[in-house]
Amino acid sequence: MATILLTALCLLLGACAGVTTPSDSDLKGVVKMFHHDLRWKYIKAAAARVAPEQSADFLEKLEDIEKDLNITHLEVRSIIISKDENLATVKAKIRYFLIPSTIVKDEKIVQVWKKIGGGWFLFSQKGGPIETSEKEPDKPEEKNPAEEKMPEKEPPPDDSPR
Questions:
Q1: In which band, very low, low, confident or very high, does the pLDDT at 1 lie, cut at 50, 70 and 90?
Q2: Correct CATH for 22-126 of 1.20.900.10, 3.10.450.50, 3.40.50.620, 3.40.50.170
Q3: What is the pTM of this model?
Q4: 3-state secondary structure of 55
């Protein structure tokens, strides 16, 4: 009897040891977990994988459609990592519908992932029910010199005799 219990305990502990989460540096695992969190509406966990300066906006967009959004399938088609290994483009296929509609939409999405501090974060997404901006918020906008107002010059003093 004790042998059976000991064997069962070893099997149980062995099974638990096999359950892991991807490391931050494992892009494929991070993307898979992000898609899993999106599909099952773990929106805060999904938003935690979005670049920090865009995370709040992404979460807000997701909260707006959370009750109506139903993702039935997400499939990664390709992952291309840049030469410097700091950017990656992920192409995927998403199948979803937004209640009250029952029409399932099949769309391609393109995600750009950026390595920040050793971890991968979603930087932009085009296609699907939630799109994000490609503009880097921490980069100052370049101003068009033609649009800037020049200070008005005062006329030179009049030196002519009166």
A1: low
A2: 3.10.450.50
A3: 0.69
A4: helix
